[in-house]
Amino acid sequence: MEQRRIMVVEDHAETCELLRYNLTVAGFEVRTALDGQQGLNIMTRWRPDLVLLDLMLPEIDGFEVCRRLKQITSLSAVPVIFLTARTDEVDRVVGLELGAEDYVLKPFSTRELLLRIKIVLRRTSTEAGDAEELFERDGLLVNFAAHEMNVDGDARVLTATEQKLFKAIVQSRGRVLSRDRLLDTVWNTDFEGTSRTVDTHMRRLRAKLGPYADWIETVRGVGYRFKA
Fold first, then answer.
1. CATH no. of 5-131
2. N or C: fewer beta carbons within 10 Å in the chain?
């Protein structure tokens, strides 16, 4: 299963390392930063699935980091959980108004924090899946609900498998999906297919994409990636 990415922005080195360790043990891919600007710099290059953000930070405080994050189109949908020792209600209200998903007070239970992270990831993934029934870019329009593709005004019909394959690639957000991962996602874990199965369907999908076929890149020896 693909690792979910978590960005930790926390200026207390020991707390930062403790979070990194526990999140890694829990199966997440983790990056850390000790100040707000460093955190933003990393996030613009490495899109996380969720951000754990301390409120009191050097250089740029957590509120400003969240505000700037939400102004970046490619990162605006990334959920944020604030971590702070400040108990003022006004801070919680401001954080939520800026678009944060949750607000966890220090000291916190690692078990509770992991549970909150999983709840937020599950909720935001479900919302994203519900919202992404249409894909439109340049001359390509895909209606997942209707299994229809329109390429520069030319209507084409997608099979259920082609639709699942294209949707999985698009929602990968530019990450490489291995053939085994695609077999599990598009077909199922019990399907006794091979990498050739994926390649065959990918060729058919690319044929229907026409001039936009090169948006799906082949990563030799690994799998496929959608050009972000």
1. 3.40.50.2300
2. N
Q: What is the 3-state secondary structure (H, E, C) of the chain?
A: CCCCEEEEECCCHHHHHHHHHHHHHCCCEEEEECCHHHHHHHHHHCCCCEEEEECCCCCCCHHHHHHHHHHCCCCCCCCEEEEECCCCHHHHHHHHHCCCCEEEECCCCHHHHHHHHHHHHHHHHHHHHHHCCEEEECCEEEECCCCEEEECCEEEECCHHHHHHHHHHHCCCCCCEEHHHHHHHHCCCCCCCCHHHHHHHHHHHHHHHHHHHHHEEEECCCEEEECC
The verdict on pTM exceeding 0.70 is: no
CATH of domain 134-226: 1.10.10.10
Please check whether the two domains, 5-131 and 134-226, share a CATH topology.
no
Tens of pLDDT, residue by residue over 143-163, are 887 778 899 989 887 877 788
pLDDT, tens only, 3-58: 899 999 999 999 999 999 999 999 999 999 999 999 999 999 988 999 999 998 98
